[in-house]
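[Solved] Which block belongs to which protein?

Original post:
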Amino acid sequence: MSDTKNEIAWRQLFGKYNILEEIEQHGMFEITSEQINEFREARLMTKFDHRKNLPEIFKRNRLSILPVTRGSYLIAPFEAYQNLEEKETEIVKVSFPVYIESIDYENITSETAALSCAYVSGIIADFVEDEEVVPTVAGRMSSETFDFYINTYAKTVLQVNVTNSQIEIDGGFEGLETLSLIEAKNSLPDDFIIRQLYYPYRLWSDKVGKKVKPIFMTYSNGIFTFYEYEFQDPKNYNSLVLVKQKRYSIEETEITLEDILEAFNRTEIVREPEISFPQADSFKRIVNLCELLNESDLTRDEITANYDFDPRQTNYYTDAGRYLGLIDKRREGSEVVFSLTSEGRRLLRLKYKPRQLKLVELILSHRAFNETFRLCLERGQMPSKDEIVDIMKHSNLYRIEAEKTYYRRAQTISGWINWILGLTRL
């Protein structure tokens, strides 16, 4: 895959300003928006919400970038990100107020809408465990002035001074005893940049006498997942610990094994499409990618830049959606653009339970998945990788030749079948 515009521009910046040499000598390098703008707009060049979004020259040298003023940034080997690990906890079912007509909780297409639904349905009040919770601060604002310590991959600690950097709060909710500052994502990331929680936390901890709770929220496929963190040392960027996690749903999520067996029994095997057999182990992320495409068509580079994918994963996951008939791919000039098919749009209009069961049918309509699932039911456990590969070799798959490729793809089959079986445990 060709380099993105960000990759090219950052390589040019590193060359012009000898950034690696400066970091070697001084531990960090400060760069201004004006310098970045010489090659590409700074706004597009500095937003890396996840490790995988970082340009290759950053990854190779274990570097990250943090804003420190309205128009300048520090580049250093910061430990800037926090892994996000979702625990398969019980899903709490909540009801939606019948008098609310301006929010369609069955068709949430933005982080703002997800936050609004979480608020009016009482999810936020339940999670923060406070009374009289109402929305207060939100949007862009100045960080004002503070300093902090941050760990580096070289096992050193750097001091960083922030003065009037721009921050953005997706939602601030104040109760009698707490102010909860929420960073919301309508995606399923593996990690997040701590700055999105830390800068707002430092700003508002100095402004209010109440306990400030930094909270990360994800919404996908009908499930709200909340993570509450605590900075044990307010002046230490890396001192956050997870206090609790909880999952919620407004829709009915109960799916039984009988429901899945009914879907299995009514499924008809389809002819294999002339598309690479999937290598995308997380089925949840395929569903989430479809949700993002339901908002707007996206280029390959936009998916890579805005989602927690590297370029290779973008190819794998878009191909998986195409394999199931949910995603279309087209070329517009030099750009590859992805959109939802009519089948994909119909599917996302379904309520939670029928949507999951339709996805089960789409998966099991392909022989390799169907036969593996049948064996799994008969034995009560997943077939071995060798057995799955043997099934694949008799399923008329498109363009799989190398033996090692079969084994990599077999992991996807077991991953998707585990997703199907996991629906009964939600």
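(Second protein starts here: sequence line, then its structure tokens.)
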Amino acid sequence: MIGFLELLTIVFVVLKAFGMIDWSWWIVFLPAVIAVSIYAIWFGFFGLIFKKTSKQINKSFNDDIFKKF
């Protein structure tokens, strides 16, 4: 599924390619850069949460198994 920022980037590239806007290319691709930054922050945040939760689950699992013996 395509998001708003990706669609905006496509529109800007098409407008730039047909000469309808005379912005520099970094402004044309700025929505894509913003989208990638948001995705990186999003996945980084959830990656940290997953890592922390995974450590807690493994610790609890190991403690339970060794207490039985």
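Accepted answer:
You had them paired correctly. Confirming on the second one: The two ends are 51 Å apart (CA to CA).
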